[in-house]
Amino acid sequence: MDTDLVLTVGIVLAVVSIPSLLSAWVEGRVPRVGTIMIIAAIGLVLAAVLTRPGGYGLNEVPDVLLRVFSRLIS
User: Fold this and answer.
1) Boundaries of every domain in the chain
2) pLDDT on residue 74
3) Which of 4, 17, 26, 31 is in Cβ range 3.0-4.6 Å of 37 for a Cys bridge?
4) Which are the contacts of 8, defined by CB distance < 8 A and separation ≥ 6?
């Protein structure tokens, strides 16, 4: 699997987990699903950064996201 795709899936998963975490916190529940999603997102992002030669810089992330989404659309 392409490291750009792994990074993008990790970032999207992290963003999607935020509402689940907030909902559980507001309702006084244990945020099990949100926690699992965050752990998976961190794992995916770390895997992408560690397996790509040279890693990723913060200034590269928007370009990577756009490149993956453009591949998805076309």
Assistant:
1) 3-73
2) 85
3) 17
4) 64, 65, 68, 69
Distance of alpha carbon 16 from its chain centroid, rounded?
9
Q: Residue 36: what pLDDT?
A: 96
- Residue-wise pLDDT for 30-46, tens only, equals 999 999 999 999 999 99
Reported for 41-46, long-range contacts at CB under 8 A and 24+ positions apart, including other chains, are 41/10, 41/11, 41/13, 41/14, 41/17, 42/10, 42/14, 43/10, 44/6, 44/7, 44/9, 44/10, 44/13, 45/6, 45/7, 45/10, 45/11, 45/14
**Which residues does the chain have with pLDDT short of 50?**
none
